Amino acid sequence: MGDVRLMKGNEVIAEAAIRCGCDGYFGYPITPQSEIMETLMIRRPQEETGMVVLQAESEVAAINMVYGGASCGKKVMTSSSSPGISLKAEGITYLAGAELPALIVNIVRGGPGLGTIQPAQSDYFQAVKGGGHGDYKLIVLAPASVQEMNDFVDLSFKLAFKYLNPAMILSDGVIGQMMEKVELSDFKPRWTAEEIKKISGSWATIGKTADRERNISTSLDLDSAKQEIFNHKLQAKYRAMEENEVRFEKIACDDAEYLFVAYGSSARICQKAVEQAREKGIKVGLLRPITLFPYPTKAIQEMLKDVKGILSVEMSAGQMVEDVRLAVNGKVPVEHFGRYGGIIPTPEEVVEALEQKILGK
Q1: Which is it for strands 102-108 and 76-80: parallel, antiparallel or unpaired?
Q2: Binning pLDDT at 50, 70 and 90, where does residue 274 land?
Q3: Do residue 63 and residue 164 come from a single domain?
Q4: What element of type H or E holds 292?
Q5: For 11-28, what is each residue's pLDDT tens digit?
Q6: Where is 3: in which H helix or E strand?
Q7: Does 330 lie in the same domain as 187?
Q8: 3-state class of 105 per DSSP?
Q9: Contact 107, 143 (CB under 8 A)
Q10: Which of 159, 193, 227 lies at the terminal end of a domain, its last residue?
């Protein structure tokens, strides 16, 4: 094994950023994600790799710094928690509209408004349905462990550069604050100027030379006909993501007659709920979406020939359940169980909800 440590999820995000060759982090403190920036400040990667770490004067400033770095072909990122992501929403849609790769991390807290600093999953709509203005999508990855917090940083950058699109790691205060064993990734060097020219030279704003015209990074085009053509291009890109990048995990699904659908920390709770339900003779499995966009719609549809009912388990009033219902299209009953405002459900509550809402007990 490589470098194995006991670390907090937020700390791992920071360490993974350094190790994957990230060029810059621009952020602003907000609970429960502040340890990401704090860890980067303590680690001082500028002395080790040259990575820039900067606390901006606001969330709005931070996301626009990300835009600037991304437009130069750099691996850049930011992190925040729910209200902070709302402040970054305009900048995020500019990134999508300019087709710029970047990483945004959201460690979700309870809302609406300032809400609570306790964990929730009530930013699902914001992450996968746009959140900002315009017809755009983010690549959204939902880690369910500290190990995946490590793994998804490099994966997010790979997908962001592959599709020239911002990517989001959507986690929450449970996984951000919990400590687990993690095998850290090996160090990758930051890209050189020549590598950036080779990888990103067709779009990055790296200057005009004798052999290269200047590039202009913008999301603005006042010609409606051109803007419509561009929007068709974006939609084709999102369909390509749906064809090629769907990720999910199935647990105890081979003989499942009922199904939990849950992501992130809720999926961890559902794993125990699967064990408890099966001890009671209820054959239930768990489908865990790893990509929330693109969503594992086909994976759910393929299970409908055997499944009699589905319970979407979320720490929200019911958001992902809408995508589950769209996938099911009325073929089997779909119900929602959730706790709100920072309350974490227990496996026993999940099993009880399955019995009441799906089995009718």
Answers
A1: parallel
A2: very high
A3: yes
A4: strand 291-293
A5: 999 999 999 999 999 999
A6: strand 3-8
A7: no
A8: strand
A9: no
A10: 193
Residue ending a domain, among 193, 208, 229, is 193
Evaluate if residue 101 carries a pLDDT over 80.
yes
Q: Of 311, 308, 353, which Cα lies nearest the Cα of 331? A: 308
Q: What is the pLDDT of residues 70-99, one digit of tens each?
A: 999 999 999 999 999 999 999 999 999 999
Q: Is residue 202 part of a domain?
A: no
First and final CA of the chain: distance in angstroms? 48
Tell me which residue range forms the domain holding 264: 248-358
Instruction: Enumerate the β-bridge partners of residue 183.
Output: 4
How far is the C-alpha of 352 from the C-alpha of 361, rounded, in Å? 9
Domain assignment present for residue 216? The answer is: no
* The dihedral sign for the CA sequence 9, 54, 77, 88: positive
Q: Reduced to 3 states, what is the DSSP secondary structure of residue 170?
A: strand
Alpha carbons 261 and 334: distance in angstroms, whole number: 10
- Taking CA 104 as the corner, what is the angle to CA 98 and CA 105, rounded to the nearest 5 degrees? 170
